[in-house]
Amino acid sequence: MNLTLHVAKRFFAVLIGITSIGFIGQASADDSMACSCTASACGNNAVGGDQGDVFSGLSQTTVTEMFLTNPNTGWTCVVPAKVRGSGGPLACFCAGYCGNGGIGADPDYFDLGLSQSTVANDYGGGKPGNKTGWLCGNYRGTINYTPPKTTYKVMDFGFNGCSVTWGPLQTNVNEAAMIKLATDANAKGFTYQPQLNFGQLLIGNYPMDCKSPAKLSWPLYLKQ
């Protein structure tokens, strides 16, 4: 169903809301993080895991977007004080000072590349509350957050004098088409300004002479 907007003044603006587009940076290698599942199980709108599971080599963005999405995911994520060893199959996390008959470590140490027998003999078995202070589980490697791709739908609208007529959504376009839209709009006299911080798309400020109607057609892109 089409909507008609009657414009009484020479200048007008059309404001349509869309979701803002985020561009996310990655943490440097020196700031890489590691996560241990310190709850009985982890997940709750985050990466799933069993108690003791360990991920390492994570960017700060990956941790924010995939592990600490809310306060109740069960993951404990830190910039390690030290990572000893590499690979799996098992890994251990020292949240406080560890040792007491087992391998000694300061807070936020991660030991990787451990076998079941090593965990049993040197890490107190790796279960919560054991005397060594270590929590151990499967080593899950690393994972990288990939921002979702942005797609758009196109809506045609036309100007007839001082009336604006909206048409139906038609097809999907990609972000490159948005850049082309900005270039073409400026060339034809439109003011095109994507308000990314406020989640809005603005097309308007086009000079209209109501006494000399113009017939124009232009596509408007809405984030899908």
Strand order of the largest sheet: 1-13-12-16
Give me the Rg, rounded. Answer: 28 Å
Helix content: 10-25%
Mean pLDDT: 70
Distance between the termini: 19 Å
Low-confidence spans: pLDDT under 50, at least 5 residues? Answer: 1-29, 153-173, 190-224
Q: Helix- and strand-based class?
A: mainly beta
What's the assembly state of these chains? Answer: single chain
Helix count? Answer: 3
Main beta-sheet strand count, sense and barrel state: 4 strands, antiparallel
Shape: elongated
Q: Strand share of the residues?
A: 35-45%
Note the run of SSEs as H and E.
Answer: EEEEEEHEEEEHEEEHEEE
**Please, how many domains?**
2
For the secondary structure, the number of strands is 16
Keywords:
224 residues, 2 domains, four-stranded antiparallel β-sheet, 3 helices, 16 strands
Explain this structure to me?
This protein has 2 domains: 4-23 and 148-223, no CATH class; 29-138, no CATH class. Helix content is 12%, strand content 38%. The protein has helices spanning 60-67, 116-122, 175-187, and strands at residues 4-6, 13-17, 33-37, 41-42, 49-50, 54-58, 75-78, 82-84, 90-94, 109-114, 134-138, 152-160, 163-173, 191-195, 200-204, 215-223. It has a 4-stranded antiparallel β-sheet. A 4-stranded mixed β-sheet has the order 8-10-9-11. Strand 14 and strand 15 form a beta hairpin.
